[in-house]
């Protein structure tokens, strides 16, 4: 039985997703696992129910396979489609921009409208934040809700994917996705250069907020043996310190990763205009990496793509 995770990271990452203004592409999910045939799916799915999931809102029991799923989380929308539950999804929130075929609506996970959600006649609602007590409000109407908070560890991301598979009758495919992710992540970590300790700065927004090694995003960077300059920042409690321009300039990171590209149009050129940043090593050596805001703020199957981008940057930086 897992503990309920804190919502701080989810709230912050959710805000970043709201800030994103671009649409993701149509790249396939980054699991290298092959597709599987599903001839006995209906019999297998019915045999898997009832099922009880230990979620952020406690034990959630589903008596039968859900056929009308509403997702109010961009991360979980990606996961649902990756594990084969796409045909069961009838509506997703306004921030769920991947994959392209997701049935996007004006529903909001940040200002949930219970009446609008219920109008979709869902037999399962998936959320990453329990804002405005949406879980309890839907519960009063006997609508099953699965609250899967933002992952604070990579293993929690895997766990949530597996749980969504069990909850939707796609257990085997979910396990296949997780297995592919783990294999890909292990391979990337193993290929990372070990002879040069590079430092980095991951920018969440241009305030600038950063993420320490204690966060989910920081754990992914740690796979590559990188030193996070935010770890020594004052007031790093919570894992997301607000850094000063002077702090970043004095730290002079070897690599800079920008997760505020689509939302805020940040680039090597805009960074160079900040006071004291023009001579930063990462800028002079052309080692400013522009990330996809969405991928960098979600904890679903596409974390492999994020790790691939980091891995490539580390190899270039160590050469």
Automatic annotation (TrEMBL):
Domain Fe/B12 periplasmic-binding positions: 68-318
Keyword field: Signal
Keyword Ubl conjugation assigned: no
GO biological process terms, semicolon-separated: cellular response to iron ion
Statement: the UniProt record of this protein carries the keyword Signal: yes
CDD domains with a match to the protein in the record: YvrC (cd01143)
Any single Pfam family the record assigns to this protein: Peripla_BP_2
Signal sequence region: 1-19
InterPro entries: ABC_Transporter_SBP (IPR050902), ABC_transptr_periplasmic_BD (IPR002491), Vit_B12_bind_prot (IPR054828)
PANTHER family per the UniProt record, alphabetical: MOLYBDATE-BINDING PROTEIN MOLA (PTHR30535:SF34), VITAMIN B12-BINDING PROTEIN (PTHR30535)
Entry similarity comment: Belongs to the bacterial solute-binding protein 8 family.
Name under which the protein is recorded: Iron complex transport system substrate-binding protein
Source species taxonomy: Bacteria, Bacillati, Actinomycetota, Actinomycetes, Streptosporangiales
